[in-house]
Design goal:
Two copies of one chain form a homodimer.
Chain A lengths: L8 H8 L7 E6 L6 E8 L3 E7 L8 H13 L17 E3 L2 E7 L11 H17 L16 H12 L6 H15 L6 E4 L8 E4 L2 E5 L6 E4 H12 L9 H14 L4 H5 L1 H21 L13 H10 L11
Antiparallel strand pairs in A: 1-2, 2-3, 3-5, 4-5, 6-9, 7-8
Helix pairs in contact in A: 3-6, 3-7, 4-5, 4-9, 5-9, 6-7, 6-9, 9-10
Chain lengths: 319, 319
């Protein structure tokens, strides 16, 4: 929730000299977004999002993110499409930051999705997994289980100040994940952050997916586990089995899960809940200085995690 | 720099049921703006700004602000125009807050205005003063000299922690203003905050003025004094006489200053600098909790104030 980098009109004009976008008639910083600075840019030709990559995003990863959006958009997947300048470059510099222009995606997020919207989301995720095939840059998931011990260590001694027995929960769940994490299910490009605010709807249809800045190579079914965490809980953090079945069924209509994937879904769900619990817990305990963000409550994910501990394939619509 | 109030898609839909704006295809919180929450709303018909009025804005003042924009827009002044719902109301409730929709104004601010842009700003301010005639709601300027003693008192004992001799400066300048403030120059509706971020340019022309939430009834020449503070200083806080002459001349091309107004301009300039110094200083010393704003540096206005202490009519282009 912040514009981190101010862009002057002069700097913007210099940046845009390399593009053919026409006259600028709107330039507004967008609230929301923790990792980067985003502006909505309107010109006589079209609307665009201008992103300045802040320090939390590694510059070495930018060719992956931008290349992936390009790859997906070219294959007909509805996502922001990088705009190239006259030199064919999609990545430039603005106010001392790496910066990219992408197409503006119409639509808006839903706060309380219906099962039907969950089904569309599942279908779209499977389409993303299909469209990601053949993308030849790789990115390791820094927030995979191998990255969790550091996050557990940095938060464990203060975790019980946030919630009773939270330290025990994260230590035990880390151990469980390390013992049970699969190693032989299908991998590919995953979004890894397909929360409700990253999926847009328009006129009752899913209009596209944004924010690929956690995308990476990992288990495809783990992406679905993240989406179940994001889409299938109510305001009181209660699991919504009908939403989950719809999401899973929507996914399977495009890409049926293997039996191995279905078997380890409860483990992946616990892992996904732990991953968001750990990053939120660390952000909660150490709000970054100058971040101007309200940290998300980590308890929303400990609540999910405890429910997933006893979930069955049948409850997930995977009978 | 914050969205203070989140608006859910469901609440927005209920709010918009009373309007005829068509399908929503964009809804983005706008960064920037300290007093209120602003969203950019795009529909198939047009673009709008949706403002939710936060606690810092008195609800009793809203009919003045909205009525003024309506009054000015009706008279051909380019500013956001309030959109009425089917019941003829321009003010509604959304997420428990008073809320209003206004038309979206194309253009963008300039960071380093040219003298020509200053002249356009002066001309536009005089047009605003003319267009404001006949508006029958009144609003006292809460930040007129009568409001300054409270601000001096609350900051004086800590002012020298911000800048050497700042306490003496504000006490002395308050005394100077109280002794020399005019009482017989022309009054009317003033914008009272026509800083660079509130004036938009498009295609080399001034396209309009936004943010009327400090507007009030006060001396017309005081509004010009505020604009000189805002538009006529360089990056090193040096006074820019060419910019000032252009601004003043642009204003006078539409509404010539009376000799009385010209005479007291140095006093008004010091007062305007003191007013922004005092509010910034108080914000600087007491950053509001949960505000998520970076306070502006008050020293930018003590530097102006010290320069205005010895300024002459001639240096202002008022020979």
């Amino acid at each position: 929730m912040a514009v981190y980098t101010e862009v002057s009109d002069e700097a913007l004009d210099v940046f845009l000299e390399n593009y053919d976008l026409g006259r600028v008639n709107m330039f507004k910083g967008i609230a929301g977004g923790v990792e980067n600075t985003n502006y909505l840019l309107g010109t006589e030709k079209n609307s665009y999002i201008l992103t300045l990559y802040e320090k939390r995003v590694a510059e070495a990863d930018l060719p992956f993110f931008i290349g992936l959006m390009d790859h997906l958009a070219t294959r007909g997947f509805s996502c922001p499409s990088p705009i190239r300048n006259r030199n064919g470059q999609a990545l430039g510099m603005l106010q001392g930051r790496p910066a990219a222009l992408v197409s503006f995606l119409q639509g808006r997020e839903v706060v309380h999705p219906t099962p039907d919207q969950c089904a569309m989301t599942g279908r779209t995720m499977a389409q993303l997994h299909r469209a990601g095939e053949g993308f030849d840059i790789k990115r390791v998931n820094a927030l995979a289980p191998s990255g969790w011990p550091t996050l557990v260590t940095s938060a464990a001694d203060r975790a019980n100040s946030v919630e009773t027995n939270l330290a025990e929960l994260i230590v035990d769940e880390l151990e469980f994940a390390q013992a049970n994490w699969p190693d032989d299910i299908p991998s590919g490009v995953i979004h890894a952050d397909m929360f409700k605010d990253n999926v847009f709807f328009l006129d009752g249809e899913l209009s596209g997916v944004i924010d690929f800045y956690f995308a990476c190579n990992d288990f495809l079914a783990y992406d679905l586990a993240i989406a179940i965490n994001a889409w299938c809980f109510g305001d009181n953090l209660e699991f919504l089995p009908e939403h989950c079945s719809a999401l899973v069924q929507g996914y399977q209509n495009i890409r049926p899960l293997t039996d191995g994937e279905a078997d380890c879904m409860p483990t992946l769900l616990r892992g996904a809940a732990l991953r968001f619990l750990l990053t939120r817990l660390n952000d909660w305990l150490d709000v970054p200085e100058g971040a101007f963000v309200i940290p998300h409550d980590p308890k929303a994910f400990s609540a999910r995690l405890r429910q997933f501990q006893s979930i069955t394939r049948a409850q997930l619509g995977l009978a």
